[in-house]
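Morning F.,

Quick status update on the modeling queue. The single chain you submitted on Monday has been processed. Sequence for confirmation:
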Amino acid sequence: MRAKIDEKVVQSIKQSLMLGMNLTEACYVEDISTSTWRRYEEKHPDIRRKRKRWQKALEIRAKVIIANKVYDKAKPSGYYAQYILDRQLDRETKNAQNALTRANARKIDMETQRIKAEIKRLNSGDEGITKIVFADDLKPDVEDDTDQKGDENSGTDTKPK
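Structure tokens below.
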């Protein structure tokens, strides 16, 4: 492997990145390791900024070509227009799915925190829990029907027989 990065290597990496290769592939072509390239970038921060632009160059150029096809006055292309709309819909769908995933993760995290707090409270022996005990001696209640009017046959007495 090559250990030294010179201007020729930088130009070759630039060309490879602008053709659509990722950094690992570009470094492989130049027979250098990606860690060697990263150390070079640490010493030359301007190269790191340039690399980011080089990596986006192909995508940007493709977008320009597609836009030109859509706006072509002589022969506008519905195919490319549809392509742009499909990509936009894909991005919007992905963003909505990511937002939903983040919301669900926050909900689960909050529920987990609530459960942990409840377990901690239960394990601490804290008497903050109110215990309700129902006691029933299974004896029927004696009803007082002295205030009721009418007799058993008049229909005004609602006491079950």
